[in-house]
Amino acid sequence: MGNKKFAVSPGFQKGGYLFKPEQLAVLGSIVGADAKIELTTFNQLYVEMQEERMDEVQVRLREVGLDIQPAGFYTKNLIACNFCRGAEEAGLHVATLLDRAVAGQEVPSPLKIGYAGCALGTSEPLLKDIAVVKMNEVYDIYVGGDAKGIKARLGQLYAWGVPEERLVPIVTGLIAIFQELGKKKERFWKFVERITIEELRKKTANPHVRGS
After folding, report:
1. Taking a C-beta distance cutoff of 8 angstroms, is the pair 176, 207 a contact?
2. 34 & 131 share domain
3. Mind telling me which InterPro entries this protein's record contains (predicted)?
4. Do the Cβ atoms of 140 and 160 come closer than 8 Å?
């Protein structure tokens, strides 16, 4: 067997994705001298190591509280703000549910989902493929952001005034449509342009839009 890659994160939590020193110590001590550990832009470490030892290593990493996800063309852990307005006001419990619902799903190209607990948007959510912004007691959802290249783009407003109980179904519905209709290696913003935001709204069970 050769080498294989997987993703490691400390799991979604208030204050961001914070590795504990003892977690990193365990990771460094068990993956092997030939392993490669890459820091990604989506709050994960990619670990490339001998495939025959991956199962035992992943069991040990989970024992110290680390989250294991597949690497490659999958949805990533939620990229969120630091909840500076407080866990309750910024919707930490909702963000936690959203992270659990979206991470690790196979998609045509890697998918980043951003979350901000208020309109300040310190996590730069509108530069993510899908963005969720808490606006008082409801949520706005944006699609098609992109931070790469000299032509970076902001996401388009897809739904607004979304109540808490409908947030996860709407976001997972967007992922499902991308899984069904996206082309291999098609960036999500290109997918949105090709399908059009109007068609996305039709295909994702008519998401709540205030004033519609």
Report:
1. no
2. no
3. NO2/SO3_Rdtase_4Fe4S_dom, NO2/SO3_Rdtase_4Fe4S_sf
4. yes
Pairing assessment for the beta strands 130-135 and 113-116 based on DSSP bridges? parallel
Q: In the beta sheet, which residues pair with residue 46?
A: 7, 38
| Cβ neighbour number for residue 70 with a 10 Å cutoff | 14
Average pLDDT of the segment spanning 141-167:
92
> Which of 31, 49, 70 delimits the end of a domain?
70
E strand intervals along the chain: 3-9, 36-39, 45-50, 67-70, 79-80, 113-116, 130-135, 138-143, 156-162
Task: Tell me which residue range forms the domain holding 147.
Answer: 79-203
> And the tokens for 181?
């209709």
Alpha helices per DSSP H over 73-196: 87-90, 92-102, 164-181, 188-195
Closest listed residue to residue 112, CA positions, set 133, 93, 126, 97: 126
Task: Please give the Cα distance from 73 to 75 (Å, whole number).
Answer: 7
Which CATH number fits the domain that encloses residue 89? 3.30.413.10
**Confidence (pTM):** 0.87
The sign one gets for the Cα dihedral 162, 204, 100, 128 is: negative
Q: To 5 degrees, how large is the angle CA 24–CA 72–CA 112? A: 85
Give the amino acid at 31. V
- Do the beta carbons of residue 48 and residue 36 sit within 8 Å? yes
Asked whether residue 13 carries a pLDDT value surpassing 80, the answer given is no
Q: Give per-residue pLDDT as tens, 176-211.
A: 999 999 999 999 999 999 999 999 988 876 555 554
